[in-house]
Amino acid sequence: MSYYAFEGLVPVVHPTAWVHPTAVLIGDVIVGPGVYIGPHASLRGDYGRLIVEAGANIQDGCIMHGYCDTDTVVRECGHIGHGAVLHGCIIGRDALVGMNSVVMDGAVIGDESIVAAMSFVKAGFAGAPRQLLVGTPARCLRAVSDDELYWKRLNTREYQDLAERCRRGLREAAPLAEPEPNRPRLRGTTAVQPKHQQR
């Protein structure tokens, strides 16, 4: 893992969290229990404090950073999709930030909200619970449905389970020259499907 102390502050990672070896955690970073930090994520706590609370996930290529004297926070069971950027913001409990979205300084995403993929949340945005936020700049399209929140929670549960699966089963390996006969497929633990395939 790439952990770096910065001016005396060492990242804190709970023993039940899992951080991919290519992720980078610098300085004032606090990672809670059951958290998943994906490949090439960058949590750079060289100015403000970065906090990832219990059961949250920060997926591949995500960036967390913030200004001095600020906290950038992903609350409990937050779900941060591939390539998202969080800068000096607060992501509410059980909220989802979609792939390649950007959430700017001082923005607060309400509990159980969903930020759609490729959205841009302006600095200082003050969200409410269960908002579906869409666009550039992001606006509230409507309330998050019970079905959408259920789907989000299934996905978050998959990442919580993935943290444990990675601790047990991820090992560096040499690639094979060709697929073996009857190559098995990997399965998740909740049988979650992409939202567009659900009825």
From TrEMBL:
Pathway: Amine and polyamine metabolism; carnitine metabolism. Residues 172-199 are annotated as: Disordered. Keywords: Repeat, Transferase. It comes from the Bacteria. Overproduction of CaiE stimulates the activity of CaiB and CaiD. This is Carnitine operon protein CaiE. Pfam families: Hexapep. Signal peptide: none annotated. The gene is caiE. The keyword Transferase applies. GO terms for biological process: carnitine metabolic process.
